[in-house]
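Now read the record:
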Amino acid sequence: MKLKYYILTLLLFWGGVTFAQEVKFTATASKTTVGTGEQFQVDFSVNGNAEGFNPPAFSSFQVLSGPNVSSSMESINGRTTVSSSYSYILMGAKIGDFTIGPAFIVVNGKTLTSSAIKIKVVKGQPVQQQGAQQSTGGEPQVPMGNSGALSKQIFLKAVIDKASVYQGEQLTVSFRLYTRIGIDDSRLDKVPDLTGFWNEDIKNPQQQQQVQWKVETYKGLKYNTADIKQTILFPEHSGNITIDPFEMTFLVRQPVHSNDIMDQFFGGSFQQVKYKAKSTPVVIHVKPLPDAGKPDSFTGAVGTFSIESSIDKTELKANEPLNYRVKVTGAGNIKLLKTVNTNFPADFEKYDPKISDTTKELITGVTGSRIYNYLLIPRHQGDYNIDPLKFSYFNPANNRYVTLTAKGFKIKVNKGVAESNVTALAGADKQDLKMLGKDIRYIKTGDTTLSQPGDGFFGSSVFYVLLALGPIACIGAFNYRNRMLRLNSDIVGVKNRRAAKLAAKHLASAQKQLQANNTSAFYEDTFKGLYGYLSDKLNIPYANLDRATIASVLTARINDEPLVNRVLETLDLCEMARFAPVTHISKQEVFEKAKGIIGDIENKI
């Protein structure tokens, strides 16, 4: 009896010490001296809610397994801690002294670095029994629990805030854990790919620090609940779209019958078992946007918005820059907004807008603003008007379209220094003619050789060839100008020709993020590069980009099923890597696949 009280006191004391510890990221090896062909294990452990794990390069060793990921959640005295472990099974390939470099991981927005490990490899033979034991990733042999008995004690559920929405209307899904038993460990098995939705993970600072547990009554029973993952969804097309199951494996303490009176006094006896849980698929009914009352200025905005416009000056000289700014603020699919419908004077040269977003992803949805900055250059003197800008959106709350109008502006353009190319010589300096230093030349005496007319440059064949080059060059320039105007008037053709160049910029940015170990930004740039390229190359509106549309249009254009499958596979890899908290996908592999796919499509089309 006293012994159990001592044990409880020791556990409570140890729990208090554990909570007081700082977040640490450590690296350990099962052996530091191994023989060639001998296997050993390297573990990277962190005692916090972590993301963005970047392992070192095991270039001097052969990787037999890994990363084998395990995580655990523990709640003591109402306080929850999360810990994760990433293990690798390695084998020494050659003799020598080697160093396994540090790994990197992000905890609460701060990047932590593990220490390096020195491994000495000596001549030896493979150890088969160790390989067989460690090939399982170091997991203990734990029996599977009774699914029927545990299904009401612990389960996952996809909780949505609305089951029927309009296309483009935002909704929130929370993958929630319900439990009435103790959890010793957990592992994420599968995150749904959310095909048919544009999605944004909710970034809640409180949830990033630790799991928030609550008590919830479900079907008459009280459960401890925690939201494992929360995501904001935007349906990309109408119809019924299914949210696939969220799957996890738990290591739980299942109660077992015991006749020991001491076990009964301390709450009974428990057995540690594994239990696989997955949420039930959820169907979202997506209604198409109504055609009745749809204004011409509607480009796909769904939610509630406001708009304002401004300029940095109302008077300037020709060929000077003018900044025109449009700000759209509200709640809804802000990041899916297209370029606003502007109408500038014909004498204004317009450049593509620079777009910047400031948004928040909360449980209530996406809110914030998008700013379009246009650079305009008036080319001629005069008084001009920038017409009021019309912006329309669909409000799902009252099922109707709303049109907003931003104010217009009057612009006065004065004469510039180099305004006209036609009269460029009219104002030339009056020093066209310069006096020579001498106005009387001495007559040169001596032998003089006379030549026949036509022997000099004037009148020669070279003279007439150069004389003809002027009109030919003018005709060529005129034809080239007309050809460029004709090509640039074809918006679809311009996007098609520039698709590869724009994709290359995104991939170049992705490569920089890859070298900087910035996983989130890397997958974001790769994803934008692929989707932007497919949108421009295949002439698919960005809001209609989904797997089915891409596969259909691409098959019709190139009729190459293996290439189409590679495109869809790479898109799925990017989606999985962007939103999965733990992923085993190689970033270099995703980058090479994306670059190769764009090159193959360019060769086909």
Notes: The CA atoms of residues 10 and 458 lie 110 Å apart. The chain has a mean pLDDT of 78. The first strand starts at residue 25 and ends at 29.
